């Protein structure tokens, strides 16, 4: 139950994979210099493609992805736990998985999670998203063991589905990661509310690194990377510019919050008339 320092790396990734890797590495190093023991990057860390077809064209099978060896070596060199929020991993000729990877300080992948809930929506602003056209959704929640306790993994749109976080909390997770690339429209309306709600209702920390700003492909993301404590208080927050946003995490605060509001113990099965 020792304390540790967590950092969100906020990015503005484009469609140049090599450049995105370099920028991520630079900011992860900055986070480590600041004393971070756990560093998390956003959804679509190495590729924000203009559409699903372009993303598929620039993607690789996991064994051939060029970013994974770089990030594994980086975690080992810096001696940090490194969550790469998500990479587009090719799983068939027509689809990728939106997959999160957790590296331990020995440079090995200790957990991987494929985004379960896919973002298919027509927004009032005219923005159209059909993630399921080119992305295969995952079907398994993942709770990873770390020196500080169990951490539940999620990605972006997942945060609108509270049952996922409840299940992970019931499996012992004291914290959740929620790497994201929220649109500016939905981010302004819902980002803070949803993340604070997931923290409060489960008595858990939420570590949510984000993409932010106007990307080269014309997409605008909300940014505002957040670290939220189990009582719903915001410990660290970014704006829209790339950078590092860190906070000290005390896992005992999760125990205290769950003692004050023991809702995890009060869950009941029920029918619907």
Structural notes for this entry:
This protein has 273 residues and is of the alpha/beta class. It has a single domain (4-264), classed as Nitrilase/N-carbamoyl-D-aminoacid amidohydrolase, CATH 3.60.110.10. The protein is built from 7 helices and 16 strands. The protein has helices at residues 17-33, 52-57, 67-78, 162-170, 184-202, 252-260, 263-266; strands at 4-10, 38-40, 81-90, 96-103, 109-114, 120-122, 128-130, 142-146, 149-153, 173-177, 205-208, 212-214, 220-222, 226-228, 234-237, 243-249. Strands 5-4-3-2-1-16 form a 6-stranded mixed β-sheet. Strands 8-9-10-11-14-15 form a 6-stranded mixed β-sheet, with helices on one face. The longest helix is centred in the last third of the chain and has 19 residues, at 184-202. The chain starts with a strand and ends in a 7-residue tail after the last helix. The relative contact order is 0.17.
């Amino acid at each position: 139950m020792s304390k540790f320092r967590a950092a969100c790396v906020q990015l503005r990734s484009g469609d140049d994979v090599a450049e995105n890797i370099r920028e991520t590495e630079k900011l992860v190093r900055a986070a480590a210099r600041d004393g971070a023991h756990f560093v998390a990057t956003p959804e679509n860390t190495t590729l924000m493609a203009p559409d699903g077809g372009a993303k598929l064209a620039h993607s690789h099978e996991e064994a051939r992805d060029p970013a994974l060896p770089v990030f594994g070596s980086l975690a080992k060199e810096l001696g940090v736990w490194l969550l790469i929020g998500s990479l587009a991993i090719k799983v068939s000729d027509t689809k990728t998985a939106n997959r999160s990877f957790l590296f331990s300080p020995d440079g090995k992948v200790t957990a991987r999670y494929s985004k379960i809930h896919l973002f298919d929506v027509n927004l009032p602003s005219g923005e159209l998203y059909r993630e399921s056209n080119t992305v295969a959704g995952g079907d398994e929640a993942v709770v990873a063991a770390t020196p500080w306790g169990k951490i539940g993994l999620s990605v972006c749109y997942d945060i609108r589905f509270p049952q996922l976080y409840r299940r992970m909390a019931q499996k012992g997770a004291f914290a959740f990661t929620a790497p994201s690339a929220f649109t500016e429209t939905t981010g302004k309306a819902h980002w803070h509310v949803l993340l604070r709600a997931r923290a409060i209702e489960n008595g858990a920390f939420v570590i949510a690194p984000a993409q932010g700003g106007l990307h080269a492909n014309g997409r605008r993301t909300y940014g505002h990377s957040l670290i939220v404590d189990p009582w719903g208080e915001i410990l660290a927050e970014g704006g829209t510019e790339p950078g590092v946003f860190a906070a000290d995490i005390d896992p005992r605060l999760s125990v205290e919050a769950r003692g004050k509001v023991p809702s995890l113990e009060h869950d009941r099965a029920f029918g619907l008339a």
